[in-house]
Every structure is written in C-alpha cells, then in structure tokens.
Design goal:
globular, alpha/beta, Pantoate--beta-alanine Ligase, Chain: A,domain 2, about 20% strand, 3-stranded antiparallel sheet, 8-stranded mixed sheet, about 35% helix, binds adenosine monophosphate, 11 strands
Length: about 325
C-alpha cells in the first residue's frame, strides 16, 4: 500500500488508498498555528452542532498519547490535539531545552488516530510579551511532584487553562499516568466553573510494564531495562493489597525494596496517600489509596502510580 504524506502550510494530507490516488481514505488534519486559527476551526464545528474533544500534549507522541486521542474521538465528533512544550512547567535545572521533539512524526501519528486539528503554537503565541498572570491551585499541588518540583503545577495549570480557553472544547482527556496533574486540573475546572468535562485515561504501558513516557527516550539500554522496577514494585504492592495488606508503611516498603533492586535507581519519593486529597496515609488505608512513585535514572525522572480500591480484595 502506498502512503504519501503532503505537509502543506495548513493541512496534513495523507493518502493511504491502495494506489495512493483516490481520496476515499484521505484524512485531512488541519494545522492550527494561531489562536485565531483554532477559534475559527472550533467555531465552525460548533456551528455544525459538533462536539469537540481536546488532548493537550507536549509532543514526541507515543501510544499513550494516541490512546487519549482515540478516547477523545469516542466522546466527541471533532478531536483537537495540541503540541506545545510548555517552558513554565520546567524548573531552571530541568530538561526544557533537551525535551525530545519530532513535529513531523507527531503530526503523522495524530492523523493516524483521526485527529481533526492540531494546535502548534509558538512561545510568543502562548506567552506574549507582558504576560504576568498565572493560575495556582492550592493544597493538592504542595504534595508529591509539587514538593519535588516547586512551581511545576502553576506552569501546568496556567497553560492548561489558557489552552482550554482557546479551544473551548466540550471534553478534554488527560492521562492517569500524571495522576496528580489530573487531580489538580479537575480541581481547577471545579473551582473556576469551567464548562469542560475532564476525562481520565488509564496508564498505557510498554510490554514489560514501564509506563510510556516521552522521557523514556533519554534512558540508556541498562537504565531502560532497570526502569521496569517502578511497575514491578507497584504490582507487588497491588498483589499484597488484593491479599488484604492495608498498612501504609508496609505497602510503601514493598515498593521501595523492589525499586532498590536497581542499582541505578535514585528514589525521589514513594508515597502511599489518600487518592482524593493526596495526603500521606499513616497506619491503615481505609479509603481509596494511591501509591505514587518518582524515581531518577541518571538525570531522567520517571513517575508511575497505582490506584487501590478498598473494596477489592481476593476472598
Ligand atoms: P505530556 O506530553 O507528557 O505532557 O502528556 C500529555 C498527556 O498524555 C497527559 O495528559 C499525560 O498524562 C498523558 N500521558 C502521557 N503518558 C501517558 C501514558 N503512558 N498513559 C496514559 N496517559 C499518558
């Protein structure tokens, strides 16, 4: 099958018909560079009574991102994704400059899962000179990644609110891999009365269990092999939970011990916390519980988590 990709200034057109000629299999995906482009695109969909779904990303797309786009397509008629590496969510010594980027590959992947429009703003479009306002969500952001990465969530909520205001979608999909981010965004949407429904998507994993992440591309082959200790540690705790273990410290120890099997892993945190407030649990876990981990391999910081339901126990 011949596949031909044409990248014009405003459209990505890929023909996948057997001869690469007919257009019955063509999928046109609109490339949206400015806020006006996005507004015109979504307004026209709205005028036709269509429901809009939105998936914000920082690009370097993998199957996790694509699963979010597919889910958006199940909830909405028109799917818009964004590719923007947001500088305000990176700390001064973090990987903003080296964050992996592959716009051409991303556009082809987004198109392959049926995205209808992709917003590709530049820095000045998102943060014009003179921007001084930011959004800060209290409480939830002081914990877990919020305490290891000060200011990170202010950067996230500011850019997500701006994107939600630009796209004005009916729904927006976020991954549970970034569990705390999802919780913070839900809180912001509630607190600021935003007219968008937030939908979570379960963590998409590599065959060996490692949660997919654009940052996995930083790992050396040995680090990549050892990085599976995050998911195996969480799995171990999950099995113990199913068998009735509810003591937070013991659950935490199980995960920590497994991660320590890797001589390259440097633990940032392993926390057993309340799945709603994200407050650390002391003693027995009686409500829905989250085990969240952040681990460095060299300079690469990976996160993962596991949600435990108090009702679920093998009898
Ligand atoms: P990012 O490009 O890393 O900012 O991620 C964009 C969106 O994709 C966020 O909502 C992430 O939570 C989500 N995401 C990233 N990796 C995964 C994954 N492995 N499984 C599910 N969702 C993911």
């Amino acid at each position: 099958m011949k596949s031909e990709m044409v990248l014009s200034q405003h459209w990505l057109i890929v023909t996948t018909s057997p001869l690469g000629l007919g257009c019955e299999d063509c999928h046109l995906m609109k490339l949206l560079y400015s806020i006006e482009d996005v507004r015109a695109f979504t307004q026209s969909a709205r005028n036709r009574g269509l429901k809009i779904g939105f998936v914000p990303t920082m690009g370097f797309l993998h199957s996790g991102h694509l699963a979010l786009m597919r889910l958006a397509g199940e909830w909405a008629d028109v799917v818009v994704a964004s590719l923007f590496v947001n500088p305000t969510q990176f700390g001064p010594n973090e990987d903003y400059d080296s964050y992996p980027r592959d716009v051409t590959g991303d556009l082809e992947k987004a198109r392959s899962v049926g995205c209808d429009g992709v917003f590709l703003p530049d820095l000045k479009t998102m943060y014009p000179d003179g921007s001084v306002t930011h959004v800060s969500v209290g409480q939830l952001t002081g914990r877990l990644c919020g305490s290891s990465r000060p200011g990170h969530f202010d950067g996230v909520t500011t850019v997500v609110l701006k994107l939600l205001n630009i796209v004005e979608s009916d729904i927006a999909v976020f991954g549970e891999k970034d569990y705390q981010q999802l919780a913070v965004i839900r809180q912001m949407v509630r607190d600021l009365n935003l007219a968008v429904t937030i939908i979570g998507h379960p963590i998409v994993r590599e065959p060996d269990g490692l949660a997919m992440s654009s940052r996995n591309s930083y790992l050396s082959p040995t680090e990549r092999t050892q990085a599976r200790v995050l998911s195996t540690g969480l799995k171990k705790a999950n099995v113990a939970w199913q068998n009735g273990l509810r003591d937070a410290a013991s659950l935490r120890d199980l995960v920590q011990k497994k991660i320590s099997d890797s001589n390259l892993a440097r633990i940032d945190y392993v926390e057993v916390c309340d799945a709603e407030s994200l407050a650390p649990i002391q003693g027995e876990c009686v409500r829905s519980t989250l085990i969240a981990v952040a681990v460095f391999f060299g300079e690469t910081r990976l996160i993962d988590n596991c949600l435990l339901d108090p009702q679920s126990q093998v009898s």
